From TrEMBL:
Signal peptide: none annotated. Keywords: ATP-binding, Nucleotide-binding, Transport. GO terms for molecular function: ATP binding; ATP hydrolysis activity. The lineage of its organism: Bacteria, Pseudomonadati, Pseudomonadota, Alphaproteobacteria, Hyphomicrobiales. Belongs to the ABC transporter superfamily. PROSITE patterns: ABC_TRANSPORTER_1, ABC_TRANSPORTER_2. The keyword ATP-binding applies. This is ABC-2 type transport system ATP-binding protein.
Length: 266
């Protein structure tokens, strides 16, 4: 999909429009308005320092020196790439290379940044840096972020809008909050007791298992408060700890698929 939106591939059916242009017919004009990062392919020159690849990008996009210096300074501050600007790309860690890739894609001030699996293979800290930067560049610079990912945490932390595609078919296109409301309203309640409580019955929750002195429930109503739960439990149980968790994005999407399959099977 990203290859079609960037003009690399021609759609086999239907049409694609990016910023009012047909990408594969107006590749030069389209390329000046977009930035692209492919998680498994590098735009950086392997044996050259990162800075040299950036300079090459300046010449390709004909970026004015003052604008280039300003953007590079901003990206160095936001992505923390200054320490390895003069290091050959082959000596960088995967996380460092990905930060450099993203910086290079933004040097010419694109209106849209396309990213294909930007956090694949990254460690936890590197993923956090990339996600925070993408959210920041969207809010502060107005850059539209379009990414494809199988890492659902990318979606949860970056994307207000979600498009789900399966086998070439559009399943969902809308705000993540709406998907949560429709398929993820049931919060998980965990009760930990000081002694075995036996069977615990709550009128506002459905039991979903437990072991030892712990019991798990799904709240039936998204408006049910923890105070209501504790009031119903009363003094009949020796509680040790209570936790109430919202469903994560993986659980929400799993519920969506389960509901869709149930409808199709009916």
């Amino acid at each position: 999909m990203i290859k079609m939106m960037t003009g690399i591939l021609v759609p086999s059916s239907g049409g694609v429009s990016v910023l009012g242009r047909v990408p594969h017919k107006e590749r030069m004009a389209n390329a000046r308005e977009i930035g692209v990062v492919f998680g498994q392919r590098s735009q950086l020159w392997w044996d050259l320092p990162v800075r040299d690849s950036f300079e090459l990008s300046r010449h390709i996009y004909d970026i004015a020196q003052s604008r280039f210096d300003e953007n590079l300074g901003m990206l160095c501050d936001m992505l923390g790439i200054s320490p390895f600007l003069d290091r050959p790309v082959r000596q960088l860690s995967l996380g460092q290379r990905m930060r450099a890739e993203i910086a290079m894609a933004l040097l010419h001030d694109p209106k849209i940044l396309f990213l294909d699996e930007p956090t694949i293979g990254l460690d936890v800290m590197a993923k956090d840096v990339v996600r925070k930067f993408l959210s920041q560049i969207n809010k502060e610079r107005g850059v539209t972020i379009i990414l494809t990912t199988h890492d659902l945490q990318d979606i949860e932390q970056i994307c207000p809008r979600l498009i789900m595609v399966d086998d070439g078919k559009l399943l969902f296109d809308g705000e993540l909050t709406k998907l949560r409301t429709a398929f993820g309203a049931r919060r998980r309640l965990t009760l930990e007791f000081k002694s075995d409580p036996g069977d615990v019955v709550l009128s506002c929750a459905t039991p979903v298992g437990g072991e030892g002195m712990t019991r798990h429930f799904l709240l039936d109503d998204d408006k049910t408060s923890l105070v209501e739960v504790l009031t119903e439990l009363g003094n009949g149980y020796d509680l040790h700890d209570v936790s109430l968790d919202a469903p994560d994005i993986e659980e929400v999407i799993r519920t969506y698929y389960q509901n869709r399959l149930a409808v199709e099977a009916a």
